[in-house]
Amino acid sequence: MERFAALVDSLVYTRSRNGKLKLIADYLRATPDPDRGWALAALTDGLDFPAVKASTIRNLMIERVDPVLYALSRDFVGDTAETASLLWPEPLGERTSSPSVAQAVTELHGMTRATAPAELAALLDRLDANGRYALLKLATGAMRIGISARLAKVAFAQAFDVSVDDVEEYWHGQFPPYGELFAWAAEGAPAPDASHVPLFRPFMLANPLEGPALAAVAADFAAFAAEWKWDGIRVQLVHVGGETRVYSRSGDDISATFPEIAAALTVPAVLDGELLVRGSHQGGEAGGAASFNALQQRLGRKAVSKRLLADFPAFVRLYDLLIRDDDDLRALSWEQRRAELEAFVPRLDPERFDLSSVIEAGSLDELATIRERARDEAIEGVMLKRRDAPYVAGRKTGRWFKWKRDPLLVDCVLMYAQRGSGKRSSFYSDFTFGCWDGDPDEGAELLPVGKAYFGFTDEELKWLDHHVRNHTVHRFGPVRETDKSLVLEVAFDSVHASKRHKSGVAMRFPRISRIRADKPAHEADRLATLKAMIRD
Amino acid sequence: MSAPFGWIRAEPHGIHVVPADAWIDPARPVERALVTHGHADHARGGHGRTIATPATLAIMKLRYWTEAGASPVEYGETIRLPGGVAATFLPAGHVLGSAQILLEHAGERVIVTGDYKRRPDPTCPPFVVTPCDVFVTEATFGLPVFRHPPIAGEIAKLLKARADNPERCVLVGAYAVGKAQRVIAELRAAGYAEPIHLHGALERMCRLYEEFGVALGELRLVAGQPKAALAGQIVLCPPSALNDRWSRRLPDPITAMASGWMRVRQRARQRMVELPLVISDHADWDELTRTIAEVNPAESWITHGREDALLRWCQLHQRKARALALVGYEDEDD
Fold first, then answer.
1. Which of A13, A69, A422 sits opposite B274 (nearest CB)?
2. A14 vs B contacts (CB less than 8 Å)
3. Of A137, A229, A385, A484, which one is the catalytic site residue?
């Protein structure tokens, strides 16, 4: 565990990509199986121990440390695992030998909700502060130290001087501690067999339509097809050898979160589409989709209740067909693939799959009008795809464009600020803002309408942090109430009626678009303005 | 003045000793100032009269050219102030010249610590535990997550980084008054005899320390040396120069910083530090709580820092305490 803890610590402080690659590669070469495999899995978020949660750690701590002191510490440090590693009382007397990564993993796997507190405590007693940090990060499956799965794969390839494409291909279908993968790369054993594995294929991505691209697309409009950009989550569906996987944008397997989708695809294929939840809103060829709010009920769950399945049924609106039966169609043009897709959709369960429609427009101007009129809850904007473009991984210029609707804007007054987490733990970076519930000159009050923690630059964050510190009127733990003198222009995608908020409205995707230090607070917008934008 | 300790008041810009009309570490110019130590947030220029230890006055003269009205007081010496107030300067163990100030009036004893620590420091005499009624303590690292490790281990990390990277140099950001000299003195104590290289801003303060009897060994200025000559060397600079253009003249420096804040990973990351050295001239959590227990005052007043947690600790231990809202004290670099 010491070596792994030292690696984690070095990775935290190393900024350069090459520096990180070297650290990981050195570790993988110098560490025996199965420790290095478990470490690799931990670095790439591949481990899950259901018995250990952030709340388990918190509960362990407040048995040992005053809850108020724990909360103050956690607020300052901004990370539960680190707070606990620093606050953990050093055991009296000699520390028994520190566990290996594999031993720690075995013990963590064996824990239940009931046994976790005592067993985790015993493990922590065997480690120093750095070891405790590494263990808790590993146990809660949230390393967040800037190591993407891709970076780990590149480091793996460098460590053993093998091709990173091969690593990508063989990685899927392998499980921690990746014994076969290490045997292949480090010892020249035969490569793992991946032919009957539902592999993830990297997505084709779009660039924003802006700047010179706007004029270029307008001039050559006939070469592009337009589609709606649905406001769900982009997914890839893979069915091979009787198995189906649902992959998210980042290549994470989310099949367990959407079992009805995984079960509904029974034809060998690889499909690209938008995952949505049924709802009363318009759009599509077969029934409508609900707003993103509804989809959110389904995201991030490892198990899904029958109730959720019934209340928020998911379906996929298809954009593209990459592989049909055993034919790889990716080299074909969009137009050819679209024809294949249209012919393919009738083979699918209509309750779970429909076709994303193509928008008929004669010019970019006409498309702009259609785009603005469609302030539909399930539409984010439009996509433009070159009709002759093959399906290629990544964000290639000139092939696909996304053209989002202009955001809605409202001027609000900063009311409260809270310290951020992680890198932002020393900054007031979460801002709550409000609108006037009437005429401020006649005694109207500000009601909070939303909260945003992005949209500003690093420089603006420093400025805002400084403003908050100098305009604090009350402090409530990590939250500061400001003197409500600063106007913030807030951009958002849509606004909904909400019974949960005192203001009666909930914004979708709010972000700070501009700091309006020039504008007096009483000139900020009123709630009525915001309510008029509701299109539920 | 009949209320207990009514003669000493915490105002936003300093601690006011009312009958003497004197201020402790005032943030703005006053007629009569008592200064605990030479750090910029405590020692400001422009006072009519500045009462402090000789070393603190020397530091102030060097940094802020505030010589006029300087009144030196030795450790242990008691001076009489107007209004029947006596003031005694006692070692605080923070930096060279740092003092706690014991104030006595009408049978009541109040100690204002300024900043302090309890660990041994080769550059200044140790903190003296002194009984009092009111103990006005700092709380810069007043959270239980702050437990500074023994300095020997941190110095060993620094020496190892140097030994492991003969083609690079280790650049240590260290506060110009106190921290830099302590790191140098501790390196010497660990047997490191090579020349230590300095950013120009540290030179005069190191010389001042030597004049006050703190041996620092051979020091060289970075300026004028070729890049290659600094490979495998230890270089010290103020924290502000760490990621500044100045450091481009160094051979691929490993960025280190000596500060108590380095205990928290994200703080180190914010400063773009590769080699965090947890070295502080402030009391950590254990030192703060231990000191309150040892001094055992009737009341503790908590100044700049994380007052909430220390206040909570006092509450849990049935100790009377309150937080003073003083402005202008910041120690982001310690």
1. A13
2. 274
3. A229
Q: Cβ separation of B312 and A78 shorter than 8 Å?
A: no
Minimum CA–CA partner of A69 in chain B: B309
Q: Which of A14, A65, A425 lies closest to B266 in CB terms?
A: A425
Residue of A nearest to B307 (CA): A72
Give the DSSP per-residue string, A472-492: EEEEETTEEEE-S--EEEEEE
ipTM comes to: 0.93
* Rounded CA Rg of chain A: 26
pLDDT tens-place string over residues A484-504: 999 999 999 888 888 888 899
How many Å lie between the alpha carbon of B89 and the closest alpha carbon of chain A?
Answer: 33
Reply yes or no: is the peptide bond before residue A177 cis, omega within 30 of 0.
yes
Cross-chain Cβ contact A13/B313 below 8 Å: no
pLDDT in tens, A285-315: 445 777 666 777 787 777 888 888 888 899 9
Burial of B191 per CB tally in 10 Å (0-12, 13-18, 19+): exposed
* Other Cβ atoms closer than 10 A to A196: 11
Quote the CA–CA distance of A381 and A274 in Å, as a whole number: 13
Domains of chain B, first to last? 8-145+282-323 (3.60.15.10), 151-277 (3.40.50)
A396 is known as an active-site residue? no
Residue A380 has a pLDDT of 79
| Residue pLDDT, tens place only, A380-427 | 789 999 999 999 887 888 899 999 877 889 999 999 999 876 567 678
Length reported for chain A = 536
Mean pLDDT of A517-528: 88
Which among B143, B273, B316 has CB closest to A72? B143
Residue B298 has pLDDT above 70, yes or no: yes
- Six token digits for residue B16: 């006011």
Partners of A420 on chain B (C-beta within 8 Å) are none
Catalogue all structural domains in chain A, each as residue range(s) with its CATH number.
2-140 (1.10.3260.10), 207-404 (3.30.470.30), 408-531 (2.40.50.140)
Say what the pTM is.
Answer: 0.67
Identify all chain B residues contacting A72, using CB atoms and an 8 Å cutoff: 143, 306, 308-309, 312
Is the preceding peptide bond at A34 cis, omega within 30 degrees of 0? yes
